[in-house]
Amino acid sequence: xxxxxxLSSLLVFVIACNITHAQTNxxxxxxxxxxxxxxxxxxxxxxxxxxxxxxxxxxxAAQDTQNHTTDFQSLxxxxxxxxxxxxxxxxxxxxxxxxxxxxxxxDLRLCEQKFKSVFESSPRSYEAIEAHRLLASVYxxxxxxxxxxxQIDALLQLRPTDADALxxxxxxxxxxxxxxxxxVRSASTTLELTDNGLPFSINGVPAAxxxxxxxxxxxxxxxxxxxxxxxxxxxxxxxxxVTGSHVETRIAVADKLVIGGIQLRSVPFLVxxxxxxxxxxxxxxxxxxxxxPVLLAFQRFVWHADKKxxxxxxxxxxxxLLHANLCFDGHHPVAQIQYERQNLAFTLDTGATNTDLYPPxxxxxxxxxxxxxxxxxxxxxxxxxxxxxxxxxxPSLRFSIGGFPVVLRPAGVLLTNTVESSKLFHGNLGIDLLxxxxxxxxxFQSMMLTLE
Length: 452
Fold this sequence. Notes:
single chain, alpha+beta, Cathepsin D, subunit A, domain 1, 5-stranded antiparallel beta sheet, 14 helices, about 30% helix, globular, disordered N terminus
């Protein structure tokens, strides 16, 4: 299955045409996931002070609880969700951290419950601001755009100059006149995966787009939108790519989208110009991507080496989040994999042709990096075109994904940061490693990535 030149990871924090803060990963060969997220230095300093104050109140608070709270705040600021989950099982965990873990592991009910107590007890606190931010991300990736806008507006009431919220608002505001994305019909189904992706239809018109866990919004081009009879919204949106460049996009909403036994209504798409690489190299009917809000509606999907693609098939396993190896960082799905028996966190990007390693990997394994060959022309593809990056290349590395061995050959390690996720995670897990298995399962109920 050839994915070379495919636009990957359109995680989109959209911004009005006069705002340039948002970062959206749009990647192809040697690409990464999309949509950079939070953490400005000043906010982190403020957050540190606030989080240190989150020790449970009471004259008899134990010293070990205080130590755990210090651990909570450092793990939260570092976006180390798997370790934060492990600590959150202990007694006396503040509600904010319980809610943050629930959001990361896609448990919206518990997330809302825990943050409700935060809003009631300290509605103007820093923890309330962060709770609004996390809830907005959960609603966004589940297609609940109106509820996401409510959270963004609540955040902006508390912090009117918050750059991330200001970046998100134009996209959400543009969708106010449309209903939220909804699942009208959901039935297990088996499809044949083509070289261009999943067969589906919009308003009865057929197409085939690749499924991209790195895209926080589905994507198509202007000619595709016209073919489907979709109306383009007038306001242009600036979208940043994996290289730091920006391109102009628009928004369109699919009234009815059908994939096998799944029928969705009101599915938003970012709309790119027809001359935008790599879409201009693809045939009409294939110039697009299916993003996370649609894939989450599947709950579970499986693809096989023989190109069979199953949606929601078989009984869903019981949820045991203590053993989950998937979580979300904002809109990014993140997978826990292993190298040399050490747990590492990679953004999961089925739209990326190749797996890339990020600077935190280089920092974690300095001895290994001394054997790498430096390369200042390591090519990354973004929506605005290719860009050479500073990197180091190793002949091969062996990883384990859920106990399944995979080999990255060659292994490119970026030595400079590109988007926010490249500062936080060890790499971007692309389709090249996932396709080494005969069967790959992504289960957003149990939050498990399984290779067999």
